[in-house]
From TrEMBL:
<dbReference type="InterPro" id="IPR037522">
    <property type="entry name" value="HD_GYP_dom"/>
</dbReference>
<dbReference type="InterPro" id="IPR052020">
    <property type="entry name" value="Cyclic_di-GMP/3'3'-cGAMP_PDE"/>
</dbReference>
<dbReference type="InterPro" id="IPR001789">
    <property type="entry name" value="Sig_transdc_resp-reg_receiver"/>
</dbReference>
<keyword id="KW-0175">Coiled coil</keyword>
<dbReference type="GO" id="GO:0008081">
    <property type="term" value="F:phosphoric diester hydrolase activity"/>
</dbReference>
<dbReference type="GO" id="GO:0000160">
    <property type="term" value="P:phosphorelay signal transduction system"/>
</dbReference>
<feature type="domain" description="Response regulatory">
    <location>
        <begin position="6"/>
        <end position="122"/>
    </location>
</feature>
<dbReference type="InterPro" id="IPR011006">
    <property type="entry name" value="CheY-like_superfamily"/>
</dbReference>
<dbReference type="Pfam" id="PF00072">
    <property type="entry name" value="Response_reg"/>
</dbReference>
<feature type="modified residue" description="4-aspartylphosphate">
    <location>
        <position position="55"/>
    </location>
</feature>
<feature type="coiled-coil region">
    <location>
        <begin position="117"/>
        <end position="148"/>
    </location>
</feature>
<feature type="domain" description="HD-GYP">
    <location>
        <begin position="149"/>
        <end position="360"/>
    </location>
</feature>
<dbReference type="Pfam" id="PF13487">
    <property type="entry name" value="HD_5"/>
</dbReference>
<keyword id="KW-0597">Phosphoprotein</keyword>
<protein>
    <submittedName>
        <fullName>Response regulator</fullName>
    </submittedName>
</protein>
<dbReference type="InterPro" id="IPR003607">
    <property type="entry name" value="HD/PDEase_dom"/>
</dbReference>
């Protein structure tokens, strides 16, 4: 059984207090405070009032002073207050409503009017609390559904990315490492003037979530090309280059089929299609140059190339971190966005720490630098 609502009467007139106690006896729990300070204490101690009846004229603190003090205390600031004013005190009534009082009642008190006014405020407060409780419940349900959707989305991304990685002979650690590199670079660049507007926390999360799909188009590349040891001939290289466009087009088709624009796919399509573009315009599939290449793809280009260099592939051995770093430097301003590459170099120790934390047997951190080949020789095959 629910406890009855509580009415707090703050009034220095004993006769009014007693008449109000009798009026609500058996209907509400009535608490009495005979001056302002006592009223403040009572309002902030259980059972907390559902409605406060507050006299305007009291000797120690006026009702206005009590009301102002109540509004400064979060626990009681939302309790509806009905001012009790003197007969014909129009200014008191106006001031009470201007200050935010729920209502006012003029003396002499008329029992039926007082009861109706108090009943209305109790019902409004209880309805508001039920609505707030329901909102809290709905927000909890929504958060749970969002977590469930995000988990399903992440699992789908991981499954698709793993399919591409398995076909390419790579491991899941490549996905984890490149994601971490992208986050590291984005977190660094978000503090610089050029990219801070795009690199919001939300956009960074979407870019990181999208990163594993960068090579999803490799699912459509024949094994004899994808898994060929050594260099590809011209026709095979042309076939390999198609994976970037194929990946983006597959994601575009998926988006059309669900008939919805998914924020993470916005970046996933850009990364898949353009992470092999080069800063100087000599990349593929569209020959984009400079900052026409989306920032997410420029970040992915640095992350993907570095990780490919330090990893064993069917067409090459792994390089040491030091050798890979030299290769990356050679690509500054030609292959890579200079600002992104500078961020990579500035954070190189952190990049290496990520690589060591997500180790593979094929990771080349201890491989001799003699594996490093001239830039032109490794351009074609290092990130098939």
């Amino acid at each position: 059984m629910n406890e009855p609502a509580t009415v707090l009467v703050i009034d220095d007139d004993p006769s009014i207090c007693e008449s109000l106690r009798r009026l609500f006896d058996g209907r509400y729990q009535v608490r009495i405070a005979d001056h302002g300070e006592a009223g403040l204490v009572a309002a902030q101690s259980p059972p907390y009032p559902d409605v406060i009846l507050l006299d305007v004229r009291m000797p120690d603190m006026s009702g206005y002073e009590v009301f102002k003090a109540l509004n400064g205390r979060p626990r009681v600031s939302k309790i509806p207050v009905i001012f009790i004013t003197g007969a014909g005190a129009v200014k008191d009534e106006e001031k009470a409503l201007e200050m935010g009082a729920a209502d006012y009642i003029a003396k002499p008190l008329r029992p039926s009017l007082v009861r109706a006014r108090v009943d209305a405020q109790v019902e409004l407060k209880q309805a508001r609390e039920r609505l707030e409780d329901e909102n809290v419940r709905l927000e909890s349900v929504i958060r749970a559904r969002m977590r469930e959707n995000e988990t399903m989305q992440s699992a789908t991304i991981a499954a698709l990315a793993s399919l591409a990685e398995v076909r390419d002979g790579d491991t899941g650690h490549h996905i984890a490492r490149t994601q971490a590199y992208v986050r590291l670079l984005a977190d660094y660049l978000k503090h610089l003037p050029r990219d801070r507007d795009e690199l919001t926390e939300c956009n960074i999360e979407l870019m990181v979530k999208s990163a594993p799909l960068h090579d999803i188009g490799k699912v459509g590349i024949p094994d004899q090309v994808l898994l060929k040891p050594g260099a590809l001939d011209a026709a095979q290289w042309l076939t390999m280059r198609h994976h970037a466009a194929m990946g983006a087009e597959a994601l575009e088709r998926a988006e059309r089929q669900v008939n919805a624009r998914l924020p993470f796919l916005h970046y996933a399509k850009q990364i898949a299609r353009w992470h092999h573009e080069r800063w100087d315009g000599t990349g593929y599939p569209d020959g984009l140059a400079g900052d026409v290449i989306p920032l997410c793809a420029r970040l992915m280009a640095v992350a993907d190339v570095f990780d490919a260099l330090i990893s064993v592939r069917v067409y090459k051995p792994a390089m040491s971190f030091k050798a890979a770093r030299e290769i990356m430097i050679e690509g500054r301003g030609t292959h890579f966005d200079p600002v992104v590459l500078d961020a990579f170099l500035d954070q190189f120790d952190a990049v290496c720490a990520i690589a060591r934390a997500q180790t593979d047997r094929d990771l080349g951190q201890t491989v001799s630098a003699t594996h490093a080949a001239p830039m032109a020789a490794v351009n074609q095959n290092r990130t098939r």
